[in-house]
Write a structure and sequence with these properties.
The protein is of the alpha/beta class and about 325 residues long. The chain has one domain: Purple Acid Phosphatase, chain A, domain 2 (4-Layer Sandwich). The protein contains seven helices and 14 strands. It starts with a helix and ends with a helix.
């Protein structure tokens, strides 16, 4: 276990980042990553960069199929231009925070073995994708199809099927910059519709996080939780002091002070920004603790769609436009 002082220090950093992540912004680190190597002493410092997307609502290209007109809110293809620019300078851990697979006439693609958003994320080599409440509305069979079609783990640690097995993956362990980062996804109990996901139950997010951290403790140097809550959950800051009044985020932070970062999109998140967070960690007493942070803001809507990804996704786009114009 971490010492009490170290836990308090990490908790403060965690609260700072919840303030950042609750704003729908794009953050870009200016710190470079070190070469991958195992911890072997005291006083070392290393840096890892986390890039997080979410809320694409099936806008894989900047086109709204129901209105049959360009979409100006941002798309995966535009975020891809930012991601490729980032990767010119450093390795990143690329995470989607959920609510990206449904929307924008997404049912047009339900019969495709690999739907366009999954195809795009595979092409961009996402490291992990956390499920959001909208990713469950089409039922468990389609959810499992999405899970199979994604190359990255599809994370929702606290959703269980009737047989007691988890519906999705629990934790992804990614090594970058000499740090082993454990990433797991959580949803709130009211994020999953009983009608759509019959037979599935949602366990307490904080209790599930505690189990995962205890299970993966020896495999990870840092932990990141992606908490996705539906619009009914209050994500407002309680006051300007930095104290948070969130559910389940405040409960999660208190129950699991080992967490180094919580990604929790705000309830009114309607734009497809990409958040890039830099965590600098120092080794002391055989444990890594986050000691410094960095960020910079970008907006994918200011970028042209990535040409390579656009070409890959053009067949989906052409078929969808043709179908809608024929009387969808």
């Amino acid at each position: 276990m971490k010492s009490s002082a170290r836990s308090v220090q990490k908790h403060r950093i965690l609260l700072f980042f919840m303030l950042v992540i609750l704003m729908p912004v794009l953050l870009l680190s200016t710190c470079a990553l070190g070469e991958i190597q195992r911890p072997n002493g005291g006083g070392e410092s290393r840096t890892v960069t986390i890039a997080a997307t979410g809320g694409f609502y099936n806008y894989f290209l900047p086109w709204d199929y129901l209105s049959d007109m360009p979409y100006e809110g941002g798309s995966l293809a535009q975020a891809a231009s930012v991601i490729r620019e980032l990767r010119e300078n450093k390795n990143i851990i690329l995470i989607d925070c959920g609510d990206s697979m449904n929307g924008n006439a997404g049912d047009l693609f339900f019969n495709d073995p690999v739907e366009p958003m999954a195809a795009g994320m595979n092409a961009l080599n996402y490291d992990a994708c956390a499920a959001g409440d909208l990713d469950f509305i089409s039922g468990p069979e389609r959810f499992q199809k999405l899970k199979r079609s994604l190359d990255a783990p599809f994370l929702a640690a606290n959703i269980y099927q009737a047989d007691g097995a988890r519906l999705a993956d629990d934790c992804a362990v990614i090594e970058r910059g000499g740090l082993r980062v454990g990433i797991f996804g959580l949803v709130t109990p009211d994020a999953v519709s009983p009608d759509a996901m019959s037979g599935c139950t949602v366990s307490d997010p904080s209790e599930e996080a505690r189990r995962i951290i205890d299970e993966y403790r020896d495999q990870c140097d840092l932990f990141i939780a992606v908490v996705h809550a539906p619009d009914s959950v209050d994500h407002a800051l309680s006051d300007s002091s930095g104290d948070l009044d969130l559910y389940p985020v405040s409960d999660l932070a208190a129950a699991c002070p080992e967490l180094d970062l919580i990604l929790s999109p705000p309830a009114d998140h309607n734009i497809q920004d990409l958040s890039v967070i830099t965590l600098s960690a120092e080794l002391s007493g055989g444990e890594w603790s986050v000691t410094d942070t960095g960020r910079e803001i970008y907006n994918p809507r200011d970028y042209a769609p990535d040409p390579d990804l656009s070409v890959r996704l053009d067949p989906y786009d052409g078929w969808a436009k043709e179908t809608v114009r024929a009387g969808y």
